[in-house]
Amino acid sequence: AGNPDVVPIPKIKISARAGVTGFEVDDDGQHLDTYPIERSWVERNGYSQSRLFAMKVKGHSMEPKLYEGDIIVVNTADTKPVDGDPYVINFDGEVVVKRMGRDAGDWWLLSDNPEPQYHRRIVRSKETIIIGKVVKRDTTRI
Known about the structure:
- This protein is mainly beta.
- It contains one helix and eleven strands.
- A hairpin with a 6-residue loop joins strand 2 and strand 3.
């Protein structure tokens, strides 16, 4: 707090919901935590502090790139899919972190984990809302 070289962004728990934005913050009426980001990083990348949030990765579908417990920073201003890039997505009412992939004219949600239970899923506009692009990760894994 008080360091001009650091900007705090909300560190949130989110849940999916139907509607225009596709998500809501789960704060249970409690004060939200913040996550410190270097101001120079935000400015260098042209991000708006108000459009960034941080969240904890859950599950193993994105290993070995993202591990359970990693913190990711999401840019909600960037919702246009790019082949191969990771996004936080409301997929049929579930918040997931997946890569977007283009194949045979369709968009797919892809996991990094090659295990068969993490198969790809086709994107359908009514059941898929891109919340934002993953732009940074903080991990304790080497």
